[in-house]
């Protein structure tokens, strides 16, 4: 018998065949209760990228509908078939449909996951001890002229720019790969030393997080029908990264990163573009 397999990437799942639409949710429940109930049901089918609960439009009957986006089209399809016309957490059966319209908004290339989403996805399929990251280097490249595009600093600004290289290791699969991240920001030359030091620490952390994201993007998870996971790493043959003996290694300080995480969350709150297959 042929073994079913599904490939999962560390990218935002824009394909609409990874999205299911749920409605006929009764108005007697709170949004928080509905969210927790749906998460409990659908996370059992596979890792979820996003779950949204929304009140019905004013022209419709009172109640709620929900959108669930998986990383896997296979898991989304299984979830739809298993839960359609089931009551789940309420007395009335729910209607569950799989989105079928192809999303052309991001046809030119999908978006990167946030650092937190990469960690969640890796923990789900590889386990908390199934992967690790090692900082090869974090360097101040503010004065470099050959490190790619830079922001326009203007006459009053000073460009702060950091680059980082991180190695991602998946020991149980014998796989490792490296990622590169660059972060930059223009600061007012009149700002005090304390604020500039805070900015430098923030950019070092940001560059490191981007390098981790870059490394995860090279990883493909092959999820087999029996639940086992295989791993492949896509390596660009033209990409040349330095070895361990890199000069100018900079210590990364542990600085609060709530601002960056909030920004990442806003970037991932993508518009929904879907239709439902109502033929079932």
Automatic annotation (TrEMBL):
Protein keywords: Cytoplasm, DNA-binding, Nucleus, RNA-binding
Assembly and binders: Homodimer.
Matching PROSITE patterns: RRM
GO CC term, one of those recorded: nucleolus
Source taxon at top rank: Eukaryota
Keyword RNA-binding belongs to the record: yes
Subcellular location, record wording: Cytoplasm; Nucleus, Nucleolus
Example GO molecular function: DNA binding
Source lineage: Eukaryota, Metazoa, Chordata, Craniata, Vertebrata
Name the UniProt record assigns to this protein: RAD52 motif-containing protein 1
Membrane-spanning parts: none
Pfam families the UniProt entry points to: DSRM_RDM1
InterPro entries registered for this protein in UniProt: DSRM_RDM1 (IPR057652), Nucleotide-bd_a/b_plait_sf (IPR012677), RBD_domain_sf (IPR035979), RDM1 (IPR040224), RDM1_RRM (IPR034200), RRM_dom (IPR000504)
Residue ranges annotated for the RRM domain, each copy included: 18-101
